[in-house]
């Protein structure tokens, strides 16, 4: 990650969330559009630093029916970054640090204004962040820490909804601060127990087949549940209990569905840890490596990780040869294992833009990367430069090993052709027959699949690292 993770997250949110729909903007008074109010609020907590103006525009957002639902995201994905204490690298530009500190003061004053106001929606949304900020401000005052922590438990952990205003996130950030003070450790244990129970209960709300907003909610609960098990494991000495807790953290670390909906825990990850923390599998793997003599157990664990995160293949190969000897063919084992867990790939036969015909049957014996997209899909278009780069640098360089097909869905051939010409893209495109996306149960766009040389397929997790996933999986 770059030095300023905070700026990265903010820019991501501004890009994805704040682009107005032109038709909507034209239908309303321009100065009253929800998007404009949100963008103006962001300016006053960042570039133009003015608590009064920020509060004014936040009230407008909260009072508008179309934007009020965005309040939790505005508070806990954006404002939180500007008020929470953070450390900076020693070589960070002092002007940047000073600017952040000034903004932190102003935005804490903004929170005070919100908490003194009568708007219950804003106060309820800000309260968990406000209380955590107060705890951060009093790290050595145990009496005040206990007072604020008890208030947090009363007000934020009184019912099971620890998701809406991210009370679960802040509880797990408060816990280590209390735990570090010996006299507050019983209170820390109470806090963690309540949070763990609520997170566990939340796991029942969604299922493997959940899509849309609930898919992000599923990912959030699973991520926090994994973390609570890591925290609980740190407090037990019995090796069997510790291993059981770490195994649970391993099992509930983001799976393929969660990683495809990682927006559900993206901000929590960076705000809690200050860095990318994609899973809690390493904690379990480290425990096994240090305490379990049976290398087959270690191998099976790494294999389970590698099937979801193929960057672990190097470690898997190392243990594989330790068990089976250097003469054993790891590549053959990997392919057989992938095909065992993958699903049979239904036939694909589609017309290409160049009037040729693509069939996955004729490409048998190669890996095939499939990408479902549309010219109408913003996230699809935004990753097309990376698709083009992957096609030129990886696919064409390994033509005997991998093929690539992108499938334009819900589109017209004229629109797709004009788009490809305008952007000067040359990656292969076929027009959907309006059936293939249903055959492969495409949940959204873009969606990528990787067909194995034996004709099985797996889903490629959505996100910025899809290219790394493919190259590691296929040994490219």
From TrEMBL:
Q: Where is the signal peptide?
A: 1-25
A single BP term in Gene Ontology: cytochrome complex assembly
What GO MF terms are annotated? oxidoreductase activity
Q: Sorted alphabetically, which Pfam families does this protein's record hold? A: Redoxin
> SUPFAM superfamilies, per this entry?
Thioredoxin-like
Keywords, alphabetical? Cytochrome c-type biogenesis, Redox-active center, Signal
Where's it mainly located?
A: other
Q: Which GO terms describe its cellular component?
A: cell envelope
Subcellular localization: Cell envelope
Give every Thioredoxin domain span.
Answer: 339-476
Quote the InterPro entries the UniProt record gives.
Redoxin, Thioredoxin-like_sf, Thioredoxin_CS, Thioredoxin_domain, Thioredoxin_ResA/DsbE_sf
* Name of protein: Alkyl hydroperoxide reductase/ Thiol specific antioxidant/ Mal allergen
């Amino acid at each position: 990650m770059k030095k300023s993770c905070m700026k990265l997250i903010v820019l991501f949110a501004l890009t994805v969330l704040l682009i107005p729909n032109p038709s909507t903007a034209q239908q309303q008074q321009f100065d009253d559009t929800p998007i404009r109010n949100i963008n103006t609020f962001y300016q006053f907590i960042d570039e133009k630093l003015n608590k009064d103006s920020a509060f004014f525009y936040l009230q407008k957002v909260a009072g508008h029916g179309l934007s009020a639902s965005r309040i939790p995201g505005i508070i806990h994905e954006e404002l939180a970054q500007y008020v929470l204490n953070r450390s900076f690298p020693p070589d960070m530009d002092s002007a940047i640090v000073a600017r952040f500190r000034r903004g932190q003061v102003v935005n804490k004053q903004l929170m005070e204004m919100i908490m003194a106001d009568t708007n219950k929606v804003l106060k309820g949304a800000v309260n968990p962040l406000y209380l955590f900020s107060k705890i951060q401000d009093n790290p050595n005052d145990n009496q005040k820490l206990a007072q604020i922590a008890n208030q947090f438990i009363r007000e934020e952990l009184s019912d099971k909804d620890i998701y809406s205003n991210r009370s679960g996130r802040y509880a797990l950030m408060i816990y280590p601060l209390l735990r570090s003070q010996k006299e507050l450790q019983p209170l820390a244990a109470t806090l963690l127990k309540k949070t763990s129970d609520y997170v566990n209960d939340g796991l029942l709300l969604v299922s493997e087949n959940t899509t849309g907003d609930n898919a992000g909610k599923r990912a959030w609960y699973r991520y926090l549940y994994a973390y609570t098990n890591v925290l609980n494991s740190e407090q037990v000495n019995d090796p069997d209990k510790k291993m059981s807790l770490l195994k649970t953290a391993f099992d509930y670390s983001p799976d393929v569905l969660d990683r495809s909906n990682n927006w559900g825990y993206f901000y929590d990850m960076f705000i809690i840890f200050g860095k990318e923390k994609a899973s809690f599998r390493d904690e379990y793997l480290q425990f096994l490596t240090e305490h379990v003599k049976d290398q087959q157990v270690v191998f099976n664990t790494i294999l389970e990780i590698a099937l979801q995160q193929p960057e672990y293949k190097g470690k898997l190969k190392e243990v594989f040869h330790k068990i089976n000897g250097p003469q054993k063919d790891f590549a053959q084992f990997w392919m057989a294992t992938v095909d065992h867990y993958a699903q049979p790939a239904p036939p694909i036969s589609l017309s290409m833009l160049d009037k040729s015909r693509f069939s996955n049957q004729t490409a048998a014996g190669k890996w095939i990367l499939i990408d479902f997209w549309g010219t109408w899909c913003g996230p699809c278009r935004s990753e097309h430069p990376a698709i083009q780069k992957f096609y030129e640098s990886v696919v064409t360089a390994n033509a005997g090993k991998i093929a690539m097909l992108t499938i334009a869905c819900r589109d017209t051939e004229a629109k797709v052709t004009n788009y490809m010409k305008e952007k000067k893209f040359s990656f292969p495109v076929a027009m959907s027959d309006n059936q293939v996306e249903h055959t492969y149960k495409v949940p959204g766009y873009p969606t990528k699949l990787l067909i194995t040389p034996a004709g099985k397929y797996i889903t490629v997790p959505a996100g910025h690292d899809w290219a790394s996933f493919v190259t590691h999986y296929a040994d490219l």
